[in-house]
Amino acid sequence: MKMSPPFPALRPADEKPDARDASDVSGASGTPTWHLDDVVSGLRRSREVTHNVRHRGRIRELPSRKAIGAILDELCAALFPTHYGRPDLTDEDIDHFVGSTLSHALRALGEQVRRGLLFGAEDELDGPTPRQRADQIVRAFAAQLVPIRALLVSDLRAAFEGDPAATSISEVLLCYPGTIAIIYHRLAHALWHLGARFVSRLISDISHSMTGIDIHPGASIGGSFFIDHGTGVVIGETAVIGEHVRLYQHVTLGAKRFPADEAGVLIKGNLRHPVVEDGVVIYAGATVLGRITIGRGSTIGGNVWLTYSVPPNSSIAQAQMRNG
């Protein structure tokens, strides 16, 4: 017995459908009959009643990923004008370019921060309005840009000095995905601690999409930080990383377990990610879980699975873990 295929057979791109095909989706006049009124009303009922996921049930202005992406481009251009801004800048016009670019970026950032504040507890507190609070946050953020750039320069030098393939700081700025991830993280981390947490999470997700490196904006990272190659690196919210630390691709600094309350709801905000002290190197594929401490100057080998603290100057290899 010949059986019909479960799906219509594919036809060449230049072959027109026959009349039977058209009748499946069109009325007598050839106009599509998708019953849009029924679909639209059903979607409204889902949004408003049966599956309402709006913050506190109300429509709010969301921060825009597109707008934040443009703001990040401008902030990077203000921090490193000839690399991320305009390569033809001269000593006479560079300050004007930085001032103009930064002014536009900060104004736009204020609007995105204001929108983000609508999704937190801040909009119900007595005191400053979301607009006033956003202005305060952006003013404080702008004041941190000089020390943020100093940290970033230490990161650039760490990459140049730590990678024999690097030929210049400019190459590190333009060609290393870890550089973009660290720049975005330092900006997001500042906003996180100033209270703009929705926007900072969007920045980290934009960075993750661009580089494959996932750093929570709450993670604390010291200077001279270098991520080599970088794809698949994950750094959790409460991780603490010291100075002169180097990570390779597919390293995870994650949580070992997720405690819940009596009702089974996950407890948020507890310290659950590793502390990595100064001068540690963690090689590709290593997974470090829980609130443990990797002592100063230690080396964690590739593909190691580590869930306990190690003292300073330790050297942990995969073979040790298998035989331990």
UniProtKB/TrEMBL annotation:
Composition-biased stretches, type Basic and acidic residues, lie in: 12-23
Enzyme superclass (EC): transferase
Q: What is its EC number?
A: 2.3.1.30
Q: Which key words are in the record?
A: Acyltransferase, Amino-acid biosynthesis, Transferase
Q: Where is this region: Disordered?
A: 1-33
Against PANTHER family, the record matches this protein to:
SERINE ACETYLTRANSFERASE
Instruction: Report the family membership.
Output: Belongs to the transferase hexapeptide repeat family.
- What name does the UniProt record give this protein? serine O-acetyltransferase
User: Native species of this protein?
Assistant: Robbsia betulipollinis
